[in-house]
Design goal:
By secondary structure, this protein is of the alpha+beta class. Helices cover 27% and strands 35% of the residues. It has a single domain, classed as Immunoglobulin-like (Sandwich). GO terms for molecular function: metal ion binding. One of its GO terms (biological process) is superoxide metabolic process.
């Protein structure tokens, strides 16, 4: 009889210990899952920095740099460019392809399909895609033909991934007429 009671106590103790270990494992698993969730959320909130080196289009002589900082859905764009037409408004955009997220590129002169010696906006679209984000307010170049632009935008997923996009600056005088839509510089975002 004593043996049966001892055996029952030992069995009960083992069950209790097993249950305690099971509860401990559930808690550890729960803590591990919570940690993984926090790391995942933290990685979504990391600041990502991108750069772009602006190269001249249409023999404009424009050059410069752009830096982009993405924090969550906040995108800060900083553009420093020179060689632009002084005292003129210069539209600027982030371009890209929505339908398949393919990489935007900057066109070369082979994109001049009408043979007028210029790559106009419609001729450049097959290379860099449609406007995804207007970088407004559009800056006016100073007396030296420079712009120094910084602005923060709230964006949605249509602008992402930034490394598949391009920045295009516009505005050039051709035959004594200013064409605000004519591309003057382009850069792939990296």
């Amino acid at each position: 009889m004593l043996f049966n009671r001892m055996s029952g106590i030992v069995t009960l103790s083992l069950v209790a210990l097993s249950f305690t270990n099971c509860t401990k494992n559930v808690k550890e698993d729960s803590q591990m899952m919570q940690g993984m969730k926090m790391r995942s959320e933290k990685s979504l909130n990391l600041t990502k920095t991108y750069t772009a080196n602006l190269q001249a289009l249409n023999h404009s002589g424009v050059s410069g740099t752009a830096s982009l900082m993405l924090e969550g859905n906040m995108l800060t764009v900083k553009i420093d460019a020179m060689g632009l037409e002084a005292n003129k408004l210069h539209p600027q955009h982030i371009h890209g392809f929505m339908e398949n997220n393919r990489n935007s590129t900057c066109p070369d002169m082979s994109a001049d399909t009408n043979g007028d010696g210029l790559v106009d906006l419609p001729e450049g679209l097959p290379s860099y895609g449609a406007v995804l984000l207007e970088l407004t307010p559009f800056p006016t170049a100073d007396a030296n033909g420079e712009i120094h632009y910084t602005k923060t935008f709230t964006i949605d997923g249509s602008v992402l991934p930034l490394q598949n996009r391009a920045i295009v600056l516009h505005g050039l005088t051709v035959m004594n007429q200013y064409w605000p839509t004519l591309p003057v510089a382009c850069a792939q975002i990296k």
